[in-house]
Amino acid sequence: MGVLSLHNECPPTNYAAAEAKEVCRGIIIGEEATSSLLRALSDSLLALAAMDDTVGGTVAAWKAFLDGDNDAAEKAQKARQSYEQSFAAVASTIDRIDLAIRKYRELAVYAQEAKAAGRGVDFQESLTEVAGADFTTLTNLRVEGLRTLKFRIKLLQQVQGVGRQLLNDRNYTEFFLTFMQPLRDLAIDADKLFSEVIRGALASHRTLFQVGQIVGEEIESGSLKDVVRSV
Prior knowledge:
Elements: H1 17-67, H2 72-89, H3 93-116, H4 121-131, H5 135-158, H6 160-168, H7 172-211, H8 224-230
């Protein structure tokens, strides 16, 4: 069971072999969704870090120009390089977000099918008590956060050419005014999404310990090795 994933059922060791195979399929879907989500967040943080380097570099270049330093042009070039790195960091992020959304949608359907088959009912009821929201709501909150993050990144990408021109013109004041708010919005929404990931993961973790058998505990049907062999 993943560290930051959402779960709607107990581990596969809680089920007979035939059901365990299906539970494994659901876990895989959830892990793929969360993995892609976390990579999108990582991209966003790398972009923000590179943009901070850009801001520091533009200030250093501006000061060097004022002081008449010989390395002013070199510092300005480094600032432009950091700027391009910021956008390179999110070049694949939209694809990652789209994949995560598809997987979470797939996971929500899987959860409903599992519940209809009589699996994970106790788990989902306990999850609702712990989280204050049912599994579908928790999944939708992640999807909503991903869609918001996607909007922020697309908005930032639309002004990439504008920023490049402002840096080439050494129009640092306009550069700050153009990018300050979009970058803060990106940081805020990335933080909100990560906080929701943590909240859901903790709820799943606590629920697991309430209603499920954990690997390493005694398993009534035999040892863990026997269960794995039977799957």
